[in-house]
TrEMBL record:
Pfam families xref list: Glyco_trans_1_4
Enzyme Commission numbers on file: 2.4.-.-
GO terms for MF: glycosyltransferase activity
Keywords, comma-separated and alphabetical: Glycosyltransferase, Transferase
Record has ATP-binding as a keyword: no
Keyword Nucleus: no
InterPro entries: Glycosyltransferase_grp1 (IPR050194)
CDD domains per record: GT4_PimA-like
SUPFAM superfamilies reported in the protein's UniProt record: UDP-Glycosyltransferase/glycogen phosphorylase (SSF53756)
Protein name: Glycosyltransferase family 4 protein
Length: 420
């Protein structure tokens, strides 16, 4: 066994956020590192596994229960200045995160240089955060450099700004402007992209942006993939069960779905399950009462992931009208549960959903989006057999979206890079 381990290539990974108990960036770090460790001798440098930079309670708890999982975890402790900026990020404005993260990445570079003196690494991989504005500094090491998955380079479409609150309007205008600035003018982004032996992007939109602005060719490898595959579908019953899950906020755009439901003629052959809480929930609940939709909407609130999956398992169609999402976990969970999805034709949904596995809503005008949502919902209500066929197609598509495929793609990149 020892000889087999010694033959594995040694890979140095920077994963700012990592935890076996959380999703989002933490899950991205954990899934890639844990799964790649089956094939490589992994050393991972990390900065958080909890609510803020420097919180590593979750990883300490994990390492106590699994002290020998085959990965070397190197905690890069934020220094006093990094912690100050992180406190300002949480207490004053999120704009300070960039400062804290950049300074922490300089600590990562220093740590990597020390590790490199004692280990013969085949390559170094900047894993997360996946935002393209934060490539870190590991490209400065004298090692083949891999960067990805890279995301967050796409703008919010202008048609959505009229439905945003003043704060979100200004925040997303600033985000769009800084996206274009970083793609065109950031020396760190350009140096990382050009120096990298391989860059892989989270979505085809991110790939296209890297080609257009940085003249760098990227492969698309999602930050999340399907883990569990369902064996059989649940036939659609007399009442079609729709499900929506996420934070009830402007970005997830549950209000657009409500506008579509309000266009439907009065009929009782549907039910909508809403999973999650958020700042506009009470407003939407009041709106449902006024529009007489409340009797067909079940508000589940914030529940554990196991309960989310149970509700989705009993549903028929997943609806995701998010106006800004890369590869949301809930969309991949819908694939795991064998559900066709209705989603806006942009970002990750554009790549994931096919005509055989769901409905993609063209992003032209708000009026057309609402109209198409209503049309797709009506189609599902009137064509149960087609919905069941889509469910079967989703089960077939699971294999293409499985983690095994993503890992194979990353391993192919590793092998190519380490032999160049």
């Amino acid at each position: 066994m020892t000889s087999q381990i010694s033959q594995k290539k040694k890979i140095l990974i920077a994963a700012y956020a990592i935890s076996p108990y959380s999703g989002s960036e933490f899950g991205v770090g954990w899934n890639f590192v844990s799964k790649l460790s089956e094939f490589y001798d992994i050393t991972v440098m990390y900065g958080t596994s909890g609510v803020c930079m420097g919180n590593r309670d979750a990883m300490l708890a994990y390492l106590q229960s699994q002290p020998a999982d085959g990965v070397k975890y190197v905690y890069v402790e934020p220094n006093a200045l990094v912690r100050l900026f992180d406190w300002m990020n949480r207490s004053v404005t999120p704009l300070f995160f960039s400062f804290s993260y950049m300074l922490w990445q300089r600590q990562v570079l220093a740590t990597a240089k020390k590790l490199k003196k004692n280990e013969d690494y085949s390559l170094v991989h900047q894993l997360n955060t996946i935002g393209f504005r934060h490539p870190g500094f590991l490209w400065k090491l004298d090692l083949p450099y891999v960067w990805g998955p890279v995301g967050g380079s796409s703008d919010l479409n202008d048609i959505f700004f009229p439905i945003l609150s003043k704060g979100n309007y200004l925040r997303n205008k600033l985000r769009n402007w800084t996206n274009r600035y970083f793609l065109r003018h950031s020396a760190r982004v350009r140096n990382a992209a050009i120096t990298a032996k391989a860059v892989f992007c989270a979505t085809s939109a991110d790939r296209d942006n890297f080609r257009r602005f940085l003249n760098v060719d990227c492969q698309v490898i999602r930050e999340n993939s399907v883990l569990n595959m369902k064996d059989a579908i649940k036939p659609t019953g007399a009442q079609v069960q729709f499900v929506w899950a996420g934070s009830v906020d402007e970005r997830k755009a549950l209000n657009l779905l409500f506008s579509a439901l309000e266009q439907l003629p009065s009929r009782s052959d549907w039910c909508l399950h809403v999973i999650g809480d958020g700042p506009i929930k009470s407003m939407l609940q009041a709106r449902a009462v006024v529009s007489e939709l409340d009797k067909q909407i079940l508000w589940h609130g914030q529940v554990q992931r196991e309960e989310v999956l149970r509700i989705m398992r009993e549903a028929d169609v997943h609806i995701m009208p998010s106006i800004m999402d890369s590869n949301p976990t809930v969309l991949l969970e819908a694939f795991e549960m064998g559900l066709p999805s209705i989603a806006l034709d942009q970002f990750g949904a554009h790549d994931l959903i096919t005509a055989e596995t769901g409905f993609k809503v063209s992003v032209n005008t708000l009026e057309e989006i609402v109209e198409q949502l209503a049309q797709h919902i009506t189609f599902c209500l009137d064509n149960h057999a087609t919905v069941d066929l889509m469910k079967t197609n989703v089960l077939l598509r699971q294999k293409e979206l499985h983690w095994d495929i993503s890992l194979r793609q990353v391993r192919d990149l590793y092998e190519k890079v380490s032999h160049e």
